[in-house]
Predict the structure of Partial AB-hydrolase lipase domain-containing protein.
Amino acid sequence: MILAVWGKSLAYVCFLTLLLRGVTGKYNKNTRKSLPAMPKLITQHGYPAETHTVATDDGYILTMHRIPYSPLSNSTDTARPVVFLQHGLISSSVDWVIMGPGNGLGYLLADAGYDVWMGNARGNMYSTRHNKLSAMLPTFWSFSWHEMGVYDLPAEIDYILTNTTQKSLRYVGHSMGTTMFYVLMSKKPEYNAKISRMIALAPVAFLRNTKSPFASITKLVPSGVSKQNGAI
Ligand SMILES: *[C@@H]1O[C@H](CO)[C@@H](O)[C@H](O)[C@H]1NC(C)=O
Ligand SMILES: *[C@@H]1O[C@H](CO)[C@@H](O)[C@H](O)[C@H]1NC(C)=O
C-alpha cells in the first residue's frame, strides 16, 4: 500500500519535472527554434492567417490568430460561420494548428467552411503586453482564470463579432478554456446571447474535489491569486 502511494507520488514528481522542463528547459527552447512562430506556422501550409490584437477593459493586450478560410474552399468572400477556439492551461493558439492540416482542429474547421479564430489568454507567449504594466512586474501576473473569463473572453468575443459583423459565434474550449467560459457565463450571463453553441473539451468547472497531489501545489500559490479564484 505504502509502496503504491510512493510509486504514484514518484510518478507525479517525474511528470511535474518533465512539465517544468518543458516550460523552462532547454528541450523546449530547441523545439521552439525549429518551429516557425504564428502566423507563419499556418501560412507555411498554404492557409491564410491573420493576427489581431484587442485590449481588455483592465488593459491587457491579447493576440488572436485567425484562419479566415481554407484554400480548399473556392470563395473567400462569403460570410462564414465563426468558431472561436480557446486553449487550456500553459498553452496557446498554437495548440490548434501544431498537428498540421488534416489533423489540427483549426485546419479541419477551416476546411469545413468555418472562419476560425484562436484566442490567447493573458500571460501566455502571445499575450504579455499591457497598456500600463510591464510583464516584469508582479502586478502584471496577479490574475487567475477569473480575470480571463471576466475580461479576456468578452474583449475577444466582442472584437470578433464586430470584425465579422456576425451576431453570435461557436465556442470551443479546452480545459482552462472551458473554465474561463463558465466564469464568463456566471458573471456576465448576457454573453449567452453571443454564443450559438459551446463545446467543452476536457471541461474543468470545480477543483475542490481533486485528489491529485497537484491540488496541494495550488496551496503554494500566493493568496492574492487564489483568493480571486472562486473555483478552488
Ligand atoms: C471548388 O470548385 C471546384 C471546381 O468548380 C469544384 O470541383 C470543387 O468541388 C469546389 N470545392 C469546394 C470546397 O466547394
Ligand atoms: C477586420 O479585420 C481586418 C484585418 O485587420 C480588417 O481589414 C477589416 O477591415 C476588419 N473588418 C471590420 C468590419 O472591422
Summary: The chain is about 35% helix and 15% strand. The CA atoms of residues 17 and 161 lie 41 Å apart. The longest strand covers residues 60-67. The pocket of 2-acetamido-2-deoxy-beta-D-glucopyranose (ligand 1) is lined by residues 72-74 (CB under 6 Å).
